[in-house]
Amino acid sequence: MDGTFQPSFPGALLAIGAIAAGAPLFGEGLRALRLSRLFATLDDQPVDARPRGFASVKGRVALESPLFAPLSAEPCAGFVLRIFQATGGQITTIEERRPFRLVSNGVSAHVGTSGMPWRLRETARRELHASEEPSQNLASLLARSPEASWVRRAGATLVLVELSLKPGSECHVVGEVRGMRGGHAVAAELALRTGTDGETTTAFVAADREPDLWIDDSGGSDYLLVSNRDDERPGLPHLKARFLGLVFGPALSGMGLLYLAWAAEQLRAHGRF
User: Fold this and answer.
1) Is 25 a residue whose pLDDT tops 50?
2) CA 222, CA 116: separation in Å to the nearest integer?
3) Which of 12, 87, 95, 269 yields a CA-CA distance of 20 to 30 A from 212?
């Protein structure tokens, strides 16, 4: 070097940042590659086939500890509430979900929760005018969004869209399937109060204490898809962008290491190291 380009403290910080950023990028790339290989052999199977490992499993939803959907007031395993301004775009999305059972021909699988969003079917839609008083459950959900609260105070109308996973509905789950010792799955009917008007509704609930199978995002896949949408079957997720991590991850880390090595050599040459 002729001295026109010298190592600097900001440069060292950037190099360290590149090294730190490269590792997770490479990790995401490896995960994408692993998922692509798993999806290449994926086949949709009913719960009573008792698959093992990474699998796509289908069955009927049975509740373990039900929620109540905010608009339809019916029991569900989970819901998504999308909040729009009537004259504008989407304001926010509120999600709640709980573990549930997937049941088929007397065999049940416990389905856990993960950070991945559920892909659910729309089950209710309504407009909420500023002059209307929402139910206690809905009001508590709206209070979670400062933007929605501000829009209501401004006198605007909200459009609420509910997507939910209701008992008895067909559902497919993609994740890591493990066996459980003992237990026998039985789907029973239970009258549940909606908590809104005193009426009761009948829902399928898991009556057994021990499921036959356990489905979650373990096993190294870190993937758990839950969907009850008829227009969407399990398929390879959008991973193309993540594949770039296999190239850019090591490249970033390598550039950072090269800069630090060059900086150390320059400091050594000038007697500063």
Assistant:
1) yes
2) 9
3) 95
- Does residue 76 contact residue 164 with C-beta atoms inside 8 Å? yes
Residues facing 206 on adjacent strands: 187
Per-residue CA distances from 153 to 136, 142, 157, 159 (Å): 17, 12, 10, 15
CA distance 211 to 134: 38
Alpha-carbon distances, residue 40 vs 19, 43, 84 (angstroms)? 32, 9, 38
Q: Taking the domains of the chain in order of start, what are their residue ranges?
A: 28-235, 243-273
First-to-last C-alpha distance (Å) of the chain: 17
Angle separating helix axes 245-269 and 9-40, nearest 10 degrees? 160
Tokens 């209701």: give the residue.
166
**Segment 43-64, tens digit of pLDDT:** 788 999 888 888 889 999 999 9
Token code pair at residue 265: 């050599």
**pLDDT band with cut points at 50, 70 and 90 for residue 219:** confident
Looking up tokens 């009948």 gives 202
Q: What is the pTM of this model?
A: 0.68
Q: Is the pLDDT of residue 35 over 70?
A: no
